[in-house]
Amino acid sequence: MSVEILDAGLLSTVQDLGRFNVMKSGFSQNGVMDAYSAKIANRLVGNSLNCAVIEMTMTGVTAYFSDDYIICLSGADMGAKINEMPIKTNKAYKVKRGDLLKCGYAKNGVRGYFAVSGGIDVPKVMGSRSTDLKCGFGGFEGRKLMKGDVLETGCENFEIPPESLKKWQVKPSEYKSEIKVRAVAGPQDFMFSDDEIRDFFSTSWIVTNQSDRMGIRLDGDAVESENGVDIISDGIVFGSVQVPKNGKPIILMADHQTTGGYAKIATVISVDLPLLAQARPDTIVRFSKVSASKAQVLARKEKKFFDKLFFV
C-alpha cells in the first residue's frame, strides 16, 4: 500500500507530533507546525493523534493512490479535488486504487495536512517519523518530498466503520488577518521593565516574510531593555518569544534551535501555536498575557476534545 507523489508542491514534508527528550543531545523537536490540524486529520481517518502526515506549505501535493484509503485534508484550504471533484477540509473521504488527489494554492492559512488511514510509514528516528530538514534525517530520506516519491503506508491499524464515514467531519478552521495569541510572561521577563512588558503586550506586531518553520519573525516598535538582552544560553521551547538585539521578537517554532542566548520575554501557550503556524506575512499579531495555570486549563480542555473525537 502506497501513495505516489506526482507533484510535491512548494515545501511538503512527512511530520508527526515531533521528537521529544532529544534536545539535551542537541537535536530539534521538529514535527508539525499546526498540531491541531494534524490531529484533526488523523482522527478523522481513524488514526492515532501521532500518526505521520504530510505537511504542505502554501501549495499542496498531487498524489496517486495504489490502494483504497480513507483520507482527510485539514489546515489551510488548498482547493483539494479527488478526480477533479472538490472536497472539503476537516472531512473524511474514501478513495479507491487509481484515484488522484490534487491540491492547489492555499486559499487561506499557510499549511495544509494530508492524512491517510494507517498513516505514512517511514522509519522512526529517535522515536519520531518527523523530518529534520537541517540535519537531513527522519521523514522521507531526511528531505522535502519530490515528484516521483512513493510513500509506504499502514504503520498502524485504524478504526473507522465505512457506514459512519459521513459523520466524520468537524467545522473547518478559520484564519484571519489579525490574530490574538495568549502567552505566559517569562522566563526572562525580569530583564525588562514593567513599561517594556506592557508595551510588548499592547503592541500590534506584523508577521514578516522571513518567517519559516524555525521561527515567526515579527516587526513593530522595538522591545528595549536597559541592561541588554544577552543571557547565558539556555533552553528553548516551541513558543518561546525571543528578543534579539534589534528588539524585534522571534517566536520559536517547530524547528527551533535547542538553546539561545537572547532573553525570552514570553512563551506562547500550546493551544495558540497553530494560529501562528497559519499566519501569512503581514498578519497582525497581538499578545494577551495569561497565567501558567490558565494555559494548563486550556491544554486539558483541548485534550478532552480530541479524546472525545470519535463519531462511531
Key words describing this protein structure:
single chain, 312 residues, alpha+beta, seven-stranded mixed barrel, six-stranded antiparallel beta sheet
General description of the model:
- This protein is 13% helix and 29% strand.
- The strands form four sheets. The chain has a seven-stranded mixed beta barrel with strand order 12-19-16-17-14-13-20. A six-stranded antiparallel beta sheet has the order 7-6-9-4-1-11, with no helix packed on it. A five-stranded antiparallel beta sheet has the order 2-3-10-5-8, with helices on one face.
- It is elongated and about 65 Å long.
- A hairpin with a 2-residue loop joins strand 6 and strand 7 (85-86).
- The protein contains four helices and 20 strands.
- It has 312 residues and is of the alpha+beta class.
- The longest helix has 16 residues, at 292-307.
- It has helices spanning 35-44, 194-202, 273-277, 292-307, and strands at 2-7, 11-15, 53-57, 62-65, 69-75, 81-82, 85-86, 92-95, 100-102, 111-116, 150-152, 178-185, 205-207, 215-219, 230-235, 240-242, 250-252, 259-262, 264-268, 284-289.
